[in-house]
Every structure is written in structure tokens, then in C-alpha cells.
Amino acid sequence: MSQAASKSVFLGKLRERLQRATLRIAPGCGVDTALLEELETQLLQADAGVTATRGILENLRARVRDGHLQDSGALRAALAEEITKLLQPAAQPLTLDGAVKPFVILAVGVNGAGKTTTVAKLARRYKNQGLKPMLAAADTFRAAAVEQLKVWGERQGVPVVAQAAGTDPAAVAHDAWLAAKSRGSDLLMVDTAGRLHTQGNLMEELKKIRRVLAKQDAAAPHECLLVLDAGTGQNVLRQIEQFHAAVHVTGLVITKLDGTARGGIVIAAAQRFGIPMRFIGIGEQADDLQEFNARAFACALAGVSEGAQP
After folding, report:
1. Residue 8 has pLDDT above 70, yes or no
2. Residue 302 forms part of a structural domain
3. Whole-angstrom distance, CA of residue 221 vs CA of residue 54
4. Three-class SS of residue 229?
5. Residues 106, 221: contact at Cβ < 8 Å?
6. Region 163-174: what's the mean pLDDT?
7. Is 98 a domain residue?
8. Residue 211 belongs to what H/E stretch?
9. Other C-beta atoms lying within 10 Å of the C-beta of residue 294
């Protein structure tokens, strides 16, 4: 499947799978105070956050006062437009520096967020673009994670550097960098152990991995991707805060949007932190992870087509 076709299929799935999170505005009804208050409640319930919700509603109420929003259809389109404005600054695709080999991506996050699956999907994505990726199984606390990454690597024909369970993760990252350098790999992706943002000792371990990589290349890791499960709601914001303080997060990946009614957390994260939103995930298939598109996401959440005008 071509990249354009893959994106088209993904956007269709995004609209379909965000139905649980789509804001419920009855078609054909007029816009009044009660409808706007209901919309405000829904945005808060979707975890869009108080600050973002307040800003969106203030702008929508101003449009109503100016006579620009006559019915619920126009309200949906205007809502999509306001959400897009909030999300657009964070919609920054990950650009690999072709002059840097290997370009190092460090994947971090809590248990169950989908780090290993995300790393594997990205390996497939970049290999399909003609690059030579390598994976490092630095989650040495969980043998299943190492095996999972190995299986993904074998399926995609991507080499995986792994060591025995209990090995120092920083040592794995170090050996993987040397292997990637010697083999001329374009990209090294390091999968780390899932950890709670409150586990200080494990956060220190992430810092150690960063230090070890920086000894090989002062700029490494070139990207620190924080993988987040949308279903955890407002806890996502706490995770961003803690991981960013510990390892300087440079990009976000929001996964599992297909199984939650809390799609608004993407809005809250973008509004509060402004960290680049690199990718979103809506399922288990390899193509269910795509670059974040602010307009497409906003329209899916508001329940309108991308061409809708207020």
C-alpha cells in the first residue's frame, strides 16, 4: 500500500474509532446557551482540560454573538476549527537528520502504554521509506518485551540487539549504538522498560541510558519519544510533566485512541505543554500508527468532514 493510500485508510479508521469520543451535538438544532453548556461539559468529560475548554467556549460564544453560528452543523465546524488552532502548533512531524548515523530515538513511558509495539511500527515505517533501522531491546526487566521485539524484528527484517534478562539496560543501549554504527544503520530505536513516573530509581536509569548514549554521540538521543495511553486520561499530563523533567521529552506518541472516550486529552496535552505531537495510534495493525494531523484529528473529534466550514 502506498503512503498516501495508507494515510487515507488511517483517516477513515480515525473517524470511525473516535466515535466513542466524538462530541454529541444533535443535528439540525439551533445554537443556544444550553447547547453550549452541554458542549462544555462534554469537552471536560473528554479530558480536554479546563483551560483549553474555557478558551474554545469563549471563542464559540463570541461567534454566536456575532451571528455566525446559526445551527448545530455550523457549531460542529466551528468547534473543529477552534480545536485545530489549539493543536496546530504541536503538530510537528519527526524529521530525521540524514547527516546523523545512527539517528537515535529513545522510547520511554509507563507500563502498558504501547512502547514496544510503537517502536516496532516505527521500524517498519522507516524501513519502508528505504532506511536501515536497528532496534535495541533495553527493557531487560521483562523477558517478554525482549521476545516481543525480537519477533517484530524478524517479521520486518530489522536487526534487534538484545542481551540476557537483568542486563544493565544502559549496556544494551551502548552495545546497540556500536552495532548500529558499525553496520551503517540510519536509525537506532531504543525500547526501554515501562515504569511509573513516580519510580525515582527507574527514572535515574533512563538518565543513565541518556548519558551512555551521549558518550558515543554528544547529541544522542536525538529524539526522546514519550509513548502515552490515551485511556489513562488526565494522568497523561502528570506523566508528561515527570518524564519531561527527567529525560527532556522531545516528542509525544498518543496510543490506544480507538478504545477510549477521552480523545480530548490530546487537546489538553498540546495546550499545556506544547511538546511536538509526533504520532497517534488507533489500533494494533502496523498502519494504525501515523503522523499526527491536527485538522484531521479535530474534525474526527467534532464529527465533521475535513472540508466543513462554519
Report:
1. no
2. no
3. 37
4. strand
5. yes
6. 91
7. no
8. helix 200-216
9. 20
Cell of 119: 517502536
d(CA 12, CA 136): 33
d(CA 77, CA 295): 11
User: Cα-flanking dihedrals φ and ψ of residue 188, to 5°?
Assistant: -120, 125
Q: d(Cα 176, Cα 178) in Å, to the nearest integer?
A: 5
pLDDT bucket at 60, cuts 50 / 70 / 90? very high
Contact between residue 10 and residue 2 where contact means Cβ atoms under 8 Å apart: no
Residue 55: the pLDDT is 95
Strand-strand pairing, 103-108 and 251-255: unpaired
CB 283 within 8 Å of CB 257: no
Alpha-carbon distance of 134 to 125, in angstroms, equals 12
Domain end point (choices 46, 67, 90):
90
163 domain residue, yes or no:
yes
Measured between alpha carbons, how far is 48 from 116 in angstroms, rounded to an integer? 27
User: Does 274 fall in a domain?
Assistant: yes
- Strands (E) across the chain are located at 103-108, 133-138, 160-161, 187-192, 223-229, 251-255, 277-281, 289-291
Q: Quick one: cell of 253?
A: 506518541
Could you tell me the pTM of the whole model?
A: 0.90
Query: Do both 226 and 123 map to the same domain?
Result: yes
pLDDT class of 307 with cuts at 50, 70, 90: low
Residue keyed to cell 483517516: 11
Residue corresponding to grid cell 508528561: 240
Query: Using an 8 Å Cβ cutoff, are 294 and 91 in contact?
Result: yes
Q: How confident is the model at residue 4 (pLDDT cuts 50, 70, 90)?
A: low
pLDDT at 17: 61
**Percent with pLDDT over 90 in the chain:** 54
Range of the domain at 169: 103-294
Tell me, rounded to whole angstroms, the distance of Cα 227 from its chain centroid: 6
Nearest to 291 by CA among 7, 48, 85: 7
Q: Cell numbers at residue 57, please?
A: 467556549
CA distances from 106 to 71, 116, 118, 167, 308 (A): 47, 11, 12, 18, 38
190 bridge partner residues: 106, 136
User: Which three cell numbers mark 304?
Assistant: 465533521
